[in-house]
């Protein structure tokens, strides 16, 4: 059994009991030191500089060109393929395992830095980004809010994973402030539209997956092969200006209400690290077309949280959801995306759409939580939130936990500023 897959493996580092990053995780990200970038991983609160480790020769038998660890983005590293990247994960775990402490503990200062003293960057160079609409509960809630319960789900929704192509250039790494966007809206349906700052800023509790292997134009990816093309997953907040979106989205869908910013967490968690937490998804009825049918457990039991933090530091968990609620899983999303021959590239990002659960408290957006502003959220400081105020920070968190093993995603946070 490998170190990463052994739940009993321990690191020589001291980890908090609820750490997202045990030795079984070994995610990948990018750090910046001065003017230099490096591929990184993390155990506990210690960021591991893989470029610095490579100088010790530890990856020489796995990777011939060690400069792959010194790029601004993970794309060249991911493009090495899962055989290589998984071997790197295992080698990092070997170096950090308790039994190997004497060999590397003395060299720790050359490749370890506390996460609070590390600048983490956008991990991938995203050329293409697709946002899906894969949570039945979210789609139903939105349908109730804007139509009625009898016609909440549109006729196509249970037949295909609905999605749209979003804006890749405005995807930002966790911790980046977001300027409140301007645009047109029509708050009074009996009056002409107005122009100004969005008044209805919202978050969307999502997860994204990153492509690790390209295809050619005309190729398709089956559900059975989809995971071969998926490198890993991250937290994702697809910020939404609901008033701008509500006025513009007919007939072509979201535009200025979405493309001003989306927040990605800095760590990509590999599918291999998530393997112990596979679970079944919701039963799909009616039966889907053959190209969307799949075998095995393709959802993951990932507990998700959304937290609002005020400017004064007062926090409240406003949503608790789970990746397992997704009606359309990641394999179906990728199979549908490529069924027409659309080619995919290393670093492409696919987001789940808002992940809402079946009951209040598990809804993944303020639109649903406040039920379009009619049920304000009471904050601990006595204020209330219908949507997101200026200087509020929204923090998304996620983790899996089973049999004493916890694999986490860190956080995706962003602050709304004027």
Structural description of this entry:
With 418 residues, the chain is of the alpha+beta class. The protein folds into two domains: 29-121, SH3 type barrels; 129-417, Fumarylacetoacetate hydrolase, domain 2. Helix content is 15%, strand content 28%. The protein is built from nine helices and 26 strands. It has helices spanning 50-54, 75-78, 82-96, 101-104, 136-146, 242-248, 271-274, 330-338, 366-369; strands at residues 29-33, 36-43, 46-49, 112-114, 119-121, 129-132, 163-165, 171-173, 178-179, 182-185, 194-197, 201-202, 205-211, 230-237, 240-241, 262-264, 269-270, 278-279, 299-300, 303-309, 315-322, 349-351, 377-378, 384-385, 393-402, 405-417. The strands form seven sheets. Strands 6, 7, 8, 13, 14, 16, 17 and 22 form an eight-stranded mixed sheet that branches. A five-stranded antiparallel sheet has the order 4-3-2-1-5. Strands 9-26-25-20-21 form a five-stranded mixed sheet, with no helix packed on it. The longest helix is centred in the N-terminal third of the chain and has 15 residues, at 82-96. It is globular, with a radius of gyration of 22 Å. The termini are far apart. The model has no long low-confidence stretch (mean pLDDT 96).
Short précis:
The protein is 15% helix and 28% strand.
* Major sheet description: 8 strands, mixed
How far apart the termini lie comes to 52 Å
* Helix run count: 9
Uncertain runs are none
* Number of spatially distinct domains: 2
> What is the average per-residue confidence, as pLDDT, rounded to a whole number?
96
Spatial shape: globular
Known CATH architecture of the largest domain:
Alpha-Beta Complex
Rg result: 22 Å
Q: Can you identify the CATH class of the largest domain?
A: Alpha Beta
């Amino acid at each position: 059994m490998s170190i990463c897959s052994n739940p009993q493996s321990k690191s020589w580092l001291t980890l908090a009991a609820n750490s997202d990053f045990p030795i079984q995780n070994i995610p990948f990200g990018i750090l910046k030191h001065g003017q230099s970038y490096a591929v990184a991983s993390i155990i506990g609160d210690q960021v591991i500089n893989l470029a610095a480790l490579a100088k010790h020769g530890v990856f020489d038998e796995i990777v011939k060109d060690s400069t792959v660890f010194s790029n601004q983005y993970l794309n060249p590293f991911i493009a090495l393929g899962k055989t290589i990247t998984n071997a790197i994960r295992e080698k990092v775990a070997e170096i950090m395992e308790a039994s190997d402490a004497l060999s590397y503990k003395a060299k720790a200062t050359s490749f370890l830095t506390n996460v609070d003293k590390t600048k983490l960057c956008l991990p991938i160079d995203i050329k293409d980004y697709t946002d899906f609409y894969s949570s039945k509960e979210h789609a139903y809630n939105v349908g109730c809010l804007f139509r009625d319960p009898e016609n909440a789900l549109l006729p196509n929704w249970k037949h295909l994973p609905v999605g749209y192509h979003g804006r890749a250039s405005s995807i930002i790494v966790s911790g980046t402030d977001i300027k409140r966007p301007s645009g047109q809206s029509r708050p009074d349906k009996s009056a002409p539209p107005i122009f100004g700052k969005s008044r209805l800023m919202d978050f969307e509790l999502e997860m994204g997956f990153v492509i690790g292997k390209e295809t050619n134009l005309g190729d398709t990816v089956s559900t059975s092969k989809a995971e071969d093309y998926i490198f890993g997953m991250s937290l994702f907040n697809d910020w939404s200006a609901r008033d701008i979106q509500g006025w513009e989205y007919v007939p072509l869908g979201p535009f200025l209400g979405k493309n001003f910013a989306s927040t990605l967490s800095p760590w990509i968690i590999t599918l291999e690290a998530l393997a112990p937490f596979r679970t079944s998804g919701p039963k799909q009825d009616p039966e889907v077309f053959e190209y969307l049918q799949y075998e095995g457990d393709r959802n993951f039991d990932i507990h998700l949280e959304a937290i609002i933090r005020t400017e004064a530091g007062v926090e409240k968990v406003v949503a608790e959801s789970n990746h397992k609620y997704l009606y359309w899983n990641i394999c179906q999303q990728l199979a549908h995306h490529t069924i027409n021959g659309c080619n995919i590239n290393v670093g492409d990002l696919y987001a789940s759409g808002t992940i809402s659960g079946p009951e209040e408290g598990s809804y993944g957006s303020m639109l649903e939580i406040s039920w379009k502003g009619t049920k304000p959220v009471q904050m601990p400081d006595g204020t209330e939130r219908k949507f997101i105020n200026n200087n509020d920070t929204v923090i998304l968190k996620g983790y899996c936990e089973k049999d004493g093993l916890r694999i986490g995603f860190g956080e995706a946070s962003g602050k709304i500023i004027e």
